[in-house]
Amino acid sequence: MKIDIDGLQAFVAIADLGGFGKAAGHLHLTQTALTRRLQKLEAWLGLQLIERSTRRVALTGVGRDFLPQARALVQDIGGAMQRLREMGQHGHGQFTLACIPSMTSHVLPGLIVHYARRHPANHIRLLDGASTEVRQAVLGGQAELGIALAGERHAELAETALFDDPLVFICRDDHPLAGRTRLRWQDMRGQDLVGVGSLMATRIEMEAQLARKGITLTPRYEVQHHATALNLVAAGVGCAILPASTFRDGDRPGVCRRALTQPVVQRQVRLLQRRAAALSPAARAFVALLRETDLRTAEAGH
């Protein structure tokens, strides 16, 4: 059923303002256009709502009964349209973000705090998972936006580079290598390394880049999460090689990070969205925040 919103507005304006002239002015219409809107509504209903005469305008019995409902409909629709307009203008609403877990250490929390201050009424639903899961969530429509690592391109996904995230050496302050500010990959040989997820995108990218330089590392311990690796490092079990964004000096007492060079191995973090999908106002506001934030500085803790 198609609701004649224009006709309802015309009827309510005429009834509330007491005449065609005032109603036409209120709706910024000519009296002829206003009359046509009312006639169209009455024709569709098969009922007369207003009695016209040269002296006065009066509601019919049906019109009087219908007026409260018509007024409520116009007010509800007007309020809904105004709320939508405000959403579009001010980025109000909610959206779902899919994100790799490593971004939740420092980068994403800082962004969310900034976003919440700018849009206190908005809500974010966060789906954390591996890069492949993030891509599938965006492609499948479960998330409007995704933050993942560079991977195989998909025709339906638009990808924007956010920042390059270098791998760093994490160890205890009393480790023999902790006194050096920069380390080489060859210094990793013989270390009790804690490796994170042999099938994780970061690990695969690291091993591929090192293989091109003829460097092979075999971790002594294998875990599935960055937080687990950090726990083991803090306990003195071994050392770890992790993305810089996952750890800042001072995060854990007695644990530090050191730069790794020759070569510098890094992963690229990207923003994903479906090409054919229009973003909600809340998601657009988040993208705008991303564009004006230097995530390299943010992840470094400056």
UniProtKB/TrEMBL annotation:
SUPFAM superfamilies: Periplasmic binding protein-like II, Winged helix' DNA-binding domain
Domain HTH lysR-type: 3-60
Transcription regulation is among the record's keywords: yes
A Pfam family this chain is assigned to: LysR_substrate
Residue ranges of the TM segments: none
Cross-referenced Gene3D superfamilies: 3.40.190.290, Winged helix-like DNA-binding domain superfamily/Winged helix DNA-binding domain (1.10.10.10)
Keywords: DNA-binding, Transcription, Transcription regulation
The protein's name in its UniProt record: LysR family transcriptional regulator
Family: Belongs to the LysR transcriptional regulatory family.
